[in-house]
Design goal:
By secondary structure, the protein is an alpha+beta fold. Helices cover about 35% and strands about 35% of the residues.
Length: about 150
């Protein structure tokens, strides 16, 4: 089942905004600005999954170079978490756009997800007082791990 849809023309902006808010600091203005950047900037990608006519997951991609992209945002509706949807979105993006490397930055709460998917994890230390951040890197060498998950 293919789930990766381009969300640039998605009909319900409030639904997009609400799901993006799941993975951002809860600041309404900041969330709206970030959504506008995705929708207006052709270099950025916003992709997602719709199940039963409802947006249930999204990933936001920002290019770093021709071969490297940053997975800036990933959000799954709480009712659909822990069913492999986030992994599937990353895998399908990779199969469709063929980046050499996907990088992401996350906190301790989500580092397990990235590790399970096959990203290499590197501590960035305490970027904010009391908050350790991690750089996550998925390169072509790690594609087998995704395939091994039955995707």
């Amino acid at each position: 089942m293919k789930v990766l849809l381009n969300l640039k023309t998605y009909r319900d902006r409030n639904e997009l905004r609400s799901l993006l808010a799941e993975c951002m600091w809860p600041d309404d203005e900041r969330i709206s600005r970030e959504l506008d950047r995705y929708l207006m900037d052709d270099s950025r990608g916003l992709y997602g999954a719709v199940i039963h006519q409802r947006l249930v997951g999204l990933i936001g991609i920002v290019p770093c170079s021709e071969e490297v992209v940053e997975l800036k945002h990933i959000a799954i509706n709480p009712q659909y978490r822990r069913h492999g949807l986030g992994t599937k979105l990353i895998y399908e993006y990779r199969q469709s756009y063929h980046p050499v490397k996907i990088i992401a930055e996350t906190d301790r709460d989500a580092v397990g997800f990235y590790s399970k998917v096959g990203f290499e994890i590197h501590s960035l230390g305490e970027k904010y007082p009391g908050v350790e951040r991690f750089q996550c890197i998925l390169s072509k060498d790690h594609e087998l791990m995704l395939k091994g998950m039955g995707l």
